[in-house]
Amino acid sequence: MAEPRNAPVIQFKEVTYRHAEELAPVLSDLSFSIYDGDTVLLAGPSGAGKSTVTMLMNGILPSNGSGVLEGKIEWFGTSSAKWKDGEISKKIGVMFQDPESQFCMTTVEEEIAFGLENLHLPKKEMKERILLSLLQTGLEGFEKRTIQRLSGGQKQRVALACLLAMQTEILLLDEPFANIDPLSRIELITTLAHLKENLGLTLIIIDHDLNGWTDWINRVILLDSKGKITLDFPLEKALNHRLSQFEALTVSLPLHIELQKGNSRIYLQEDKWIKQLTDSERIRLVNMLNSGHRKNKITAALMELRNISFSTENQQILKKITFTLFKGETVAFCGHNGAGKSTLALLLAGLYSPSGGEILLKGSPIRTYTPKEIRRKIGYVFQNPEHQFVEHTVEDDLSFGLRIQKLPANQIQQRTLAMLKAIRLDGFQNRHPLSLSQGQKRRLSVASMTIDDLDILLLDEPTYGQDAGSMKNLTEMLLERKKQGKTTLLVTHDMELIHSICDRTLLLSNGTVQFEGAVEALWELGEDTLNRHGLTLPPSEKLRQSMGVNNHVASLN
Amino acid sequence: MWLHSINPSVKLLTILMTIIVLALFLDPVLYFVFWIGLMIITFFLSAISWKTWALLTAPFLFMAIGYVWTAMLFPNEELLKGEHMLFEWGWLILTEESLMRSAGLGMRVIVFSALSLLFVLTTKPVLFMLSLMQQLKLPTRLAYGIMAGYQFLPLIKDEFQIMQRAQQIRGVGRPQTLKERVSHWKSFVIPLLASAIRKAERTAVAMESRGFTGEPRSHWYREIPLQKRDAVFVAMIGVLFIVSFTVSSILQ
């Protein structure tokens, strides 16, 4: 793009940063500029130092760290050393990854006011700005709401409102969508796009997922795992000339771009790409997206829920749910936050007892099993893998279940080593589980459950906060289970995961079953119905449907 | 309600002063009259539920009974000389003075607990911190740190419950003996601490990235005012003390 450049707002000049006790720098020799009005994506694998760049960009580092900075950082053309403490954070705002830990007050308005008080604004102006920022983020009427009780997507909206109220000109988004559901992600991206247009913001997006961004990002900067810039191009040029680098650095690409791999020209916009496809290409793609991998073999019932209800002291969470889980199938529970999915999963795992109805496991009521027997049949992987590590080394944690079963020592060792290799954690035996990376933790938590040969495995939101690489790995682990004829149950918002491995879905809303049936039938409900339940169409299904429609129109002409 | 809207700093200082002054006396009658007055103020001027209040007072009540009991059973022999004997039964000796002393100790515990509950149950933590910053000039760095930490408490509780469930799933048996229970809880400490530290770090970075430097504020979004009713509250407690003091001196 040869458009004239505006004035630079952030400039890195040969910046190298190393943490105090480490020899290898986190970032080495970084030089780049962000210009006024830019929308830049900064991407790279985990461990590439993306968070360090964020903190350098808005001045949290080096002043608050013990690391050493070489090179120069300039804000609005003035060297960072010449800025007063806290002054730059009034111009550059950050939205952080973890929605739980970026707030210090109880209610929404108090939280927004916290930043405005830092700016020493008079009370009247604070009031006006709070109202405006809530309006801009679609949070009218949320002033007095307690932040902790909001959903992840709403919390990130509050974080955005806080920055808008402070009228920062530059927004740094540090993977703000890693922990929220896909519908909220799309809605937030749309909100941001509108705001950018209306307010002329400069956006710097740190993410490992390009989905949703392609329409309005103008530049990409890629960092490799050693903290070096490998690419700094306009998006279109980057995709056309260096597509393989995105893959090498485990950046997720939108499906329509991935399908263009190997083409001489890559179209950014999905509709433009579809328009230029020939009929035969289109048919080939539709068929490919339509891979009918699901088979409906009728098998024995493994678990049966009959009229299950569950209530806490003041609320009925599940109302008369009847559902049968068959041997060998992979089923997804989906629906809004608070629809009762996790509660249902915990009931199935025998961790809660229903307040009404009956649960049968292999034909006999679950009450007749001892907790130990249930544990040998049903496993549960929690959303945050850290919660379920019980030992101090990776190897001990992995073999824990086998040791409880009192298997012979050599057999335990054999199986543990084989599993370590399978999840690519060999060489990490003696590390503490908490010291692993996010993806490694997830693999370990799933592996320590599957090593027991359990009949039924339940997973709660297994794909939250995972990058493309570990997502693929997880999918493979689950498909492998499926091949062995084991039963898996997922609580998830990840539609592509449902699309690629599940046979059946159960859609819950307000504690009742809204839909039960094959995955394809769920997609047939249409985008609007799905959106109402906080769901989206998976990208591949969406693409297939839009191509199908185009096909239809083309044949009419 | 009225008591809930008293300025928290005024409330705190009044109650602290009252406790210091009351500690100079060891007079069960004065304490008792004061306590009755305090009860009337607490229950007529606040929205505290009887149940919560009673539940929280119960342990203090036991403590008070314990005081009276031990003072009666194990009196200081030195002090007993020359005191008025009430009754003597074997080694159990009760004098008028020792009864007054132990009753005084017991009532003191009860009055102090009632005063503390009056503060705790009618004051919102966030308003308390805001008032400390606005009226008593507590450094903002400290106060906002405490408030941020306060937001974590429910999160840590949730996390603890999840971990209990997760361990159950892994097949860690339910702890039976006290020793097992201690080691079971100990295994939670490191991961909980690790996650708390990480959360605290993130929050600190988030606060700083929004321009928080710890300097005093020039305007408050939520002002915690000093009102007439604050003076009325102080006066009320003062009058109550004078009444209790007078009643006690007339009766003795």
Describe this structure in words.
- Chain B: It holds the Pfam family CbiQ.
- The complex is a heterodimer of chains A (557) and B (252).
- Chain A has 557 residues and is of the alpha/beta class.
- Chain A is 37% helix and 22% strand.
- In chain A, helix 2 runs parallel beside helix 4 and helix 15 runs parallel beside helix 16.
- Residues 551-557 of chain A have low confidence and may be disordered.
- With 252 residues, chain B is mainly α.
- Chain B is 73% helix and 4% strand.
- In chain B, helix 2 (28-45) packs antiparallel against helix 9 (228-251) and helix 3 packs antiparallel against helix 5 (96-120).
- The two termini of chain B are 38 Å apart.
- The interface between A and B is large, with 59 and 45 residues.
Q: Find the biggest chain interface.
A: A-B, 59 and 45 residues
Note the main sheet of chain A. 6 strands, mixed
Q: Output the radius of gyration of chain A.
A: 25 Å
Strand order of the largest sheet of chain A: 6-7-8-3-9-10
The rounded distance between the terminal residues' Cα atoms of chain A is 36 Å
- Sequence stretches where pLDDT stays below 50 over 5 or more residues of chain B: none
Mean pLDDT of chain B: 89
What is the tally of helical segments of chain B? 9
**Quaternary state of the chains:** heterodimer
Tally the structural domains of chain A. 2
> Quick one: overall form of chain A?
globular
Could you describe the largest sheet of chain B, including whether it forms a barrel? 2 strands, antiparallel
Rg from Cα of chain B? 24 Å
Task: Give the end-to-end Cα distance of chain B, rounded to a whole number of Å.
Answer: 38 Å
Summing up helix and strand content along with how strands pair, one would put the structural category of chain B as mainly alpha
Membrane topology (chain B): Multi-pass membrane protein
Protein name (chain B): Cobalt transporter
Subcellular location (chain B): Membrane
Pfam families (chain B): CbiQ
